[in-house]
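Before surveying the methods themselves, it helps to consider a single example record, giving the amino acid sequence and C-alpha cells:
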Amino acid sequence: QLTESGGGMVQAGDSMSLACTAPEPTFSSYSMAWFRQTPGKEREFVASITWSGDSAAYSDSVEGRFTISRDNAKNTAYLQMNNLEPGDTAAYYCAAKFYRPSHFAADYDYWGQGTQVTVSS
C-alpha cells in the first residue's frame, strides 16, 4: 500500500509538492507514476518515472510545469507541481508497478488512497 502526502488548496500560479511513500524495501524495483481524477471522469495519467529514475514521462497538459522524481533510499516518489492552474484541480493518486512504466492506470498493481489538490483562480 502506498501513502501519499501533500495536497491542499492553493491559488493559480502557486506551487505544491506531493510525496508517495512505499513501506516495502523493494520500492526501488517499481516504476512509479502519478494519476489524477475528477468526479465523473476516468483516472488520467500525469507523470511516470523508471525504477532507476533515469527516465520520466509527462502528459502534455503538465509538461514543463510538473516534475516527477524519486529517492529510493527513502522509498519515496515526489511530484513537484509549479504554476498550478484551476484545471489541475483533482484527486491525485500515486501508483507502482514492476518493470517499465505505463500511461495506463490498469497496468499498475499498487495504489495510494489519493490526495486532493484544489487550485482556485
